[in-house]
Amino acid sequence: MSNPWIAIGALAVVALAIPISMMVVSSLLRPSVPEQGKTATYESGEVPTGSSQKIKFNIQYYMVALLFVVFDIETVLIFPWTVIYRDAVSAVGMTRALLPMVAFIGILAVGLGWAWRNGAVRWVRSSRATKGADTYE
Amino acid sequence: MAVAAEYYLLLSAAIFCIGLFGVLTRRNALIFLMSVELMLNAANINFVAFSLQHGNLTGQVFALFGMAIAAAEVAVGIGIILVLYRNFSDVDVTKATTMRW
Amino acid sequence: MVDPTWLATAPALAFGAAALLLLLADSVDPDTTNTTVLGGIAVAGSLGSLAAAVYLLYGGVGIPTGEGGTGPAVLFGGQLVVDQMALFFMTIVASVTALVTLASMDYVREHAYQAEFYSLVLLSATGMSLLAAANSLATGFVAFELVSLPSYALVAFLKKNRGSVEAGLKYFLIGAVSSSVLAYGISLVYAATGVMRFDAVATAIQSGTVQTVVDGSVQAQSSGASVQMSILGVGIVMIIGGLAFKMAAVPFHFWAPEAYEGAPAPISAFLSSASKAAGFVIAFRAFAVAFPIGALAETGGAVDWFVVFQVLAIATMFIGNFAAATQETVKRMLAYSSVGHAGYVLIGLAALTGTGDGMSLSMSAGMAHLLVYGFMNTGAFLFIALAEYWGVGRRFEDYNGLGKQAPVACAAMTVFLFSLAGLPIGGGFFSKFYLFQATLNVSAWSLAAALVINSALSLFYYSRVVKAMWIEEPTGERTIDSYPTGLYTAIVAAAVITVLLIPGFGYVSEVAFRAVELL
Amino acid sequence: MLVETLLLVTLLGAGIVMLAPDRVAGKLAAGISVIPVALTTYMYYVFLTDYNGAGNALLSPGEVAFGTQVPWLNLGEYTVQYYVGLDGVSMPLLALTTILTTLAIVSAWTPIDERQSQFYGLMLLMEVSLIGVFTALDFFLWFVFWEGVLIPMYFLIGVWGGPRRKYAAIKFFVYTNVASLVMFAGLFALVFATDVTTLSLPAMATAFRTATGLPTIAGYSLATISFVLMFIGFAVKVPVFPLHTWLPDAHVEAPTPVSVMLAGVLLKMGTYALLRFNFTMLEATARQLAVPLAIVGVVSVIYGAMLALAQRDLKRIVAYSSISSMGYVILGLVAFTPLGMGGATFQMVAHGLISGLMFMTVGVIYNTTHTRMVGDMSGLADRMPWTAGIFVAAAFGYMGLPLMAGFAAEFFIFQGAFNAATLGASAPVLTSLAMFGIVIVAGYLLWAMQRTLFGSFTLETDYEVGRAAFHDVAPLAVLLLLVIALGVAPDLSLDMIQHAVAPLTGGGA
Amino acid sequence: MAPVSAPLPETLAELAGLDPNSVPVLVLMSLIGAAFIGSLMLTQTALVIWAKRKITAAFTDRIAINRVGPAGLLIIPADAVRLLSKELIVPDGVDRPAWDLAPLVIASSALLGFAVIPMGNGIHLADPEVGLAYVFATASIASVGLVMAGYASNNKYSFLGGLRAVAQNVAYEIPLILTGASVVIFAGSLQMSEIVAAQSQTLVGPIPSWYAFVNPFAFALFMIANLAEVGRNPFDIPEAPTEIVAGYQTEYSSVYFVLIYLGEFIHIFLGGAIIATIFLGGPAGPVLPGIVWFLIKIWGVFLFTQWARSAVPRVRIDQLIEIGWKGMLVLSLANLLLTAVIVGVIA
């Protein structure tokens, strides 16, 4: 059969074309009334202070990101196995097809357990947040 | 509609050189890291391309490993860069000169 | 044949199991600092690995069944091969790891992240053991990274210590670059030959046609395409570059002094002994099996790489030793000297004759030197660890008169240093002579001269430490109140083995020789 | 098995002493070091009775006394053995070693007052290596011991030495190590050239002596080049002018017992190695180069004596004069006559005893007066008569008074060298020049003695000078007796020596 | 297995009587098919937005839009015109290229996924062998757009919103993919058509062997993870209106706002489509034509999300992370192994 990626590319073109055309249309329609103060970023009516692009944010976002990188890659390694698993079972028997993956996921689980116990996935809340949160819990 | 292997080779070489250039010129550790990833992925391009060329899966499997290793490398690298930032409050690789370089 | 076959990788498995066990222990009680348990697990794991390696080594794994052995254990369609050479290096790695973990028990006692420390060490050791058995560029690369990644973290382990972090960073940056260079080199070799298993690559080079591996057996590619020698050559050079990093050989040695100086001293010992050995084993195997110099020379086109290695060896020897002679701090001196030793071992690859006895001679000389070096250098660095534990300074003068306060440790250190210098009070003398002989065997006079000159030079800077320890008078007051058991045990053990390697060198050299012959 | 026992016992003793507490270390070491003495005496006796006719260990290895030979290890194509044994040359030197060590240890009780256990431990360790050097018949084994001597010596000088000890120790260490390297290079050039694969001394000897068609480099045969290299290597140990400069420093800085060992035994290692390697393995070359070698020997005789003249320090005097007496040994060796070579070997033993005696005496004097300068003292005789007496005796022994060992040795040497075929016409000249050296030393020693011992008592460094302790004088006495004994009955060792060197000198004593 | 039906471009080529193997023809036909699918999805989405307002109103017992046209249906074009003709306010200090690109990425990434979804009646643009992997990939591009928007618009609320969005997406991506993998174990292929075909038998009696019935546990997991992926209650913290105004889209107005809003709903729709395809047998169903069944299933999933949005309270970020990493991840790993064991036993 023909190469499916042609069609996919076509859809990509369309998927880009639609929003862009909308932008164009809107740029033709919309008025432009430049005015002082309109362009201030929204901070609940206060005068904006500082830039949001330089603020330091919670390190735990990094932790989660690192964890994700690791586990996402593991899924990359799992997928080929899932695809051939059925044939493998019929070819070499269940244990030989399954055990390696069990070991793999087992090691993964050890790592996850370690990260879990060492608080890599525990979201430490600031005291203020905790105070607020207690009322909900 | 197969592309000749030489073009893949050229592509990967180009990417590798870009990465190398970044490694040699950039002083920001994060950009350094990205450049290294670029180099690794250049290798992956070769693997996938030539596994298609040679018609065996070895290369693709290696590409998977390559990705996994690259990810692990990033994880370790980010960690090190974080402690670097804590100690030197900067991610400039040339700033850290407690010892002679 | 070991039954089941995968048991042949027991040395690696022991490491891995111990590492996972440590993680589990840490998961059970995350903020434990119970060094006895954690360190105990680590030491037990390493000793188990050592026992397994030695048992298999003398159980004749890898020796053909015709000669009373049980033949090499081949796993995963030839991706891993456990033979004499692999076991030889597994033995080195295991013994060094045992010493290091034992010594670390005192070094990290106050530390918060002990379990992580030990498991990282053990994981790295796992990688080394696997690397020793890797019979394919793919498994080689993966194991190589498994060695490197934990060691990056280990070097930067002292998070509060700027030196340690900086060392970690530099080690990581250079390591990352060189591993990507290695990966690219591998990709080029694959592009040229279509295979990654060493023997298959060799077949491709000899036959000059692209090969492929069909369930374990090498056969010519159906298309019958021919090997692009130019691509292959570039690939080989890049692989050399990537491996030179782990061997800490010029020109990829820059990280070594930094990393060794900044890292916690047991880790410096670990890296400079075991990690280096790991770097060499893959190089030995790859260049002995995958890129046979004879075939390369015939088919032409590709580099004949042992010239490259000769240049590397000489450059490494001289740069390492001369830099070491100019150092002011002991640790850094040792770091540079270990670069110099990498140069010595490179002779194993530089003094090759195509195949046969010449190859066995030079390579086994390198292997023997690595083993002896494993003990004496580890011991020396562990002594530095002891000094750091005592808060002794880093410069030579700070060691003045140490011999009065800690005679045993200093005696051991003296043994290490003189043995490193090649005086016949330690195995270092024989291994160096063995290398010397290997160079003369191919009448590579330049290598021989470099070896002799550098040995003579090294005696000078090694004896500076000895002089400081025994002869100089103590400057300022230094109080040594505690004598850490673990460190002492490790150091003394290393010293005893170093000395015993004089009478025992015969076994080492014979096993090594046999191992290379069987490749 | 006796040799192994000897080595093991001494090694064990060294370990024990190392661990022993400081105050008992001295006595303990002395006690332990008696065992080797007893063993060697027994071996000596057995040798005299059973093996006296045994030939040279290298040339007729069949008759080696107390031999053991087991394979040790294979370095590539080379097989290294554990191979020890004794012949007429090494037996007396072995005896000398053990005896001198014991006496030196005893004489160390007074001067050594810090880190005793380490000191005596190192002394015994050095004894192990020395025993090994004189018994080993395999090159690697020999080389291990040869280098093994340096390390204890380095520490002994460096730790317990005098004010400039660091300099002296380093100088000694560097000199001797570089020397070994040179020697190593020279020897292995030959080994690779003659592709001998078993590295035992006899095997090498046969290989080198029968080697033909050696490559020539720059017109010189490889044999000559290696000979020169090895000669240089050993000459540093001997020492021979101009490679002697480490010796005076080492002697002056080393504590007395150490300089006893240094002068008494370590210098003999050099001549022993010369005899074994250069003059046995490369006999032909040695014969060709006899005249220049003899000249070197004579020069160091005269030169040593001249330098001795210029000294004020008793120790330096002895040191330099020992340079000159080692010159005699060279002269005797190159003569290649039974008397010459035998005398030379005998001179090793004799000089070992006498110089040890001298150094000990000086040491005793120094311990009480805390000075060694000739000018600083006079008239010691009436304060310490025993010491003085022995000093006089020793000095006479040194200048070769009859009935003393020195006389016998030097007499044989001159007699052997005077009409040595190898030296040809120049033999008489050189010999008489060498004799002239004695006269200088003799005169100078007499003068020095007269200044220090006799006349009215004065002492610059005003210390209370009394009789030396018994355990200081006893070793002196023992040594003196030995010297006299050997002087009266030189055949005690000369006989076996003659038999041992006979194969070199064309048979027949 | 052969695909259930030839892909759309070839069918179109057949209809137009052109050679379906020449590349130019295929390109043309692909464009046509793509345009068709794109417009189909857009209309659906427009309806969905209308429906959303109605449903929410119903849940909160209000009467929603009912003035413009029958049942207020004409509000859709009205809104479109209204929003497109609004002034585009560019706040101070935005990171311009990123700020402009974000809406584009968000809107178009979601559309991309539909390329490989078989919608029955041959409405199936492409059928690559790695369909499932592809669709997961496209579905996760959106989070890039979200973080771009959050970072670029120089507003603390937006920034937090973007970070939360990423944290949430990455936390639930892995359970999502692993659960999908458990389906692959059954189907033994990543090709969408084969996954659909594998569900065509009947399980017991009238119940078809849809994976939702074969492995309801995986289905449940997938639904929950999907909720988080599309950012609907209880996982709508990225734009939690009561906490951080509107999250990453706070500073967007006019057409950009439209695009982001549209993108979200297309994403919801894509999620529904994935679920319908890999768990609900794709277009399979009695009587009605496949495309209708397919849309019905998607709407069903959509209704579920709307119900959740109105009925389930929002979780806090810490709860979100813990549910994701400690609950979902472990469960999905367990589910994977369990599925493997079962398949191994029956195979």
TrEMBL record, chain A:
Keyword match Zinc: no
Keywords, in A-Z order: Membrane, Transmembrane, Transmembrane helix, Transport
InterPro entries: NAD(P)H_OxRDtase_bac/plastid, NADH_UbQ/plastoQ_OxRdtase_su3, NDAH_ubi_oxred_su3_sf
Highest taxon of the lineage: Archaea
GO-annotated molecular function: NADH dehydrogenase (ubiquinone) activity; oxidoreductase activity, acting on NAD(P)H
Topology within the bilayer: Multi-pass membrane protein
GO CC terms: NADH dehydrogenase complex
Primary location group: membrane
Compartment(s): Membrane
Gene3D superfamilies the UniProt entry points to: NADH:ubiquinone/plastoquinone oxidoreductase, chain 3
Transmembrane intervals: 6-29, 61-85, 97-116
Keyword Nucleus in record: no
Entry's family note: Belongs to the complex I subunit 3 family.
Name used for this protein in its record: NADH-quinone oxidoreductase subunit A
Organism ancestry: Archaea, Methanobacteriati, Methanobacteriota, Stenosarchaea group, Halobacteria
Automatic annotation (TrEMBL), chain B:
Signal sequence bounds: none
GO MF terms held by the record: oxidoreductase activity, acting on NAD(P)H
Keywords: Membrane, Oxidoreductase, Transmembrane, Transmembrane helix, Transport
Location(s) in or outside the cell: Membrane
CC terms in the record's Gene Ontology section: NADH dehydrogenase complex
EC number: 1.6.5.11
Superkingdom in the source lineage: Archaea
GO biological process, one term: ATP synthesis coupled electron transport
Keyword hit for tRNA-binding: no
Class in the EC hierarchy, top level: oxidoreductase
Annotated TM spans: 7-24, 30-49, 61-85
InterPro entries: NADH_UbQ_OxRdtase_chain4L/K (IPR001133), NUOK/Mnh_C1-like (IPR039428)
Main localization category: membrane
Family according to the record: Belongs to the complex I subunit 4L family.
Stored HAMAP family: NDH1_NuoK
Name of the featured protein: NADH-quinone oxidoreductase subunit NuoK
Source organism per UniProt: Haloarcula salinisoli
Gene transcribed to yield this protein: nuoK
Automatic annotation (TrEMBL), chain D:
Keyword flag Transmembrane: yes
Residue ranges the record marks as coiled coil: none
Domain of life: Archaea
GO BP, sorted A to Z: ATP synthesis coupled electron transport; electron transport coupled proton transport
InterPro entries in UniProt: NADH_Q_OxRdtase_chainM/4 (IPR010227), NADH_UbQ_OxRdtase (IPR003918), ND/Mrp_TM (IPR001750)
Cellular component, GO, one term: membrane
All copies of domain NADH:quinone oxidoreductase/Mrp antiporter transmembrane, residue ranges: 136-423
Keywords recorded for this protein, A-Z: Membrane, Transmembrane, Transmembrane helix
Any one GO MF annotation of this record: NADH dehydrogenase (ubiquinone) activity
Membrane topology, as annotated: Multi-pass membrane protein
Main localization category: membrane
Keyword hit for Oxidoreductase: no
PANTHER family registered for this protein in UniProt: NADH-UBIQUINONE OXIDOREDUCTASE CHAIN 4
Family affiliation: Belongs to the complex I subunit 4 family.
Protein name in the entry: NuoM family protein
Organism (species): Haloarcula salinisoli
TrEMBL record, chain E:
Key words, A-Z: Membrane, Transmembrane, Transmembrane helix
One term of GO molecular function: NADH dehydrogenase activity
GO cellular component: membrane
Transmembrane segments: 25-51, 63-81, 101-120, 132-152, 172-190, 210-228, 255-280, 287-308, 328-346
Membrane topology: Multi-pass membrane protein
BP term (GO), one: aerobic respiration
Subcellular location: Membrane
Keyword set includes Cytoplasm: no
InterPro entries referenced in this protein's UniProt entry, alphabetically: NADH_UbQ_OxRdtase_su1/FPO
Pfam families given in the database record: NADHdh
Chief localization: membrane
Protein's UniProt keywords contain RNA-binding: no
Alphabetical list of PANTHER family matching this protein: NADH DEHYDROGENASE SUBUNIT 1, NADH-UBIQUINONE OXIDOREDUCTASE CHAIN 1
Name of the protein: NADH-quinone oxidoreductase subunit H
